[in-house]
Amino acid sequence: MFDMMKMMGKLKEAQERIKETQEKLADMTVVGEAGAGMVKATANGQKRLVSLEIDNDLIKPEDKDMLRDLIIAATNKALEEADNMAKEELRKSTDGLIPNIPGMNLGGLF
After folding, report:
1. How do the domains of the chain map onto residue ranges?
2. Which of 20, 33, 53, 71 is deepest in the core (most CB within 10 A)?
3. Burial (CB count <10 Å: 0-12, 13-18, 19+), residue 12
4. For 1-10, 11-20, 41-50, 84-93, which range has the lowest pLDDT when averaged over its residues?
5. Which Pfam family is one of this chain's hits (predicted)?
6. Are 77 and 33 a contacting pair, CB within 8 Å?
7. pTM of the predicted structure, to 2 decimals
8. DSSP classification of residue 83
9. Tally of CB atoms within 10 A around 6
10. Are 89 and 81 in contact (CB under 8 A)?
């Protein structure tokens, strides 16, 4: 038989774990690179760009368009990795707490 009180307790515990994990994600970082590592973008698990490194060889006025493209590519790679990392960390933090109910999509929580 379905125990509603037990389920509510599990959801409250899951919410607490999600909050803790989201706070932890601020300190976790991933790096996206472009141009064979000449541009490196570092993002945290909250999908915020926290660092951008550009090789000195790229800082030339005539290469402005290429540099812009490399920055965009590196940043997008870092943000995609940050998104994947955040989803995985949140999934791990709620593993076993939230049941896998067919048709119930809890992806929006993460």
Report:
1. 26-96
2. 71
3. exposed
4. 1-10
5. YbaB_DNA_bd
6. yes
7. 0.66
8. H
9. 9
10. no
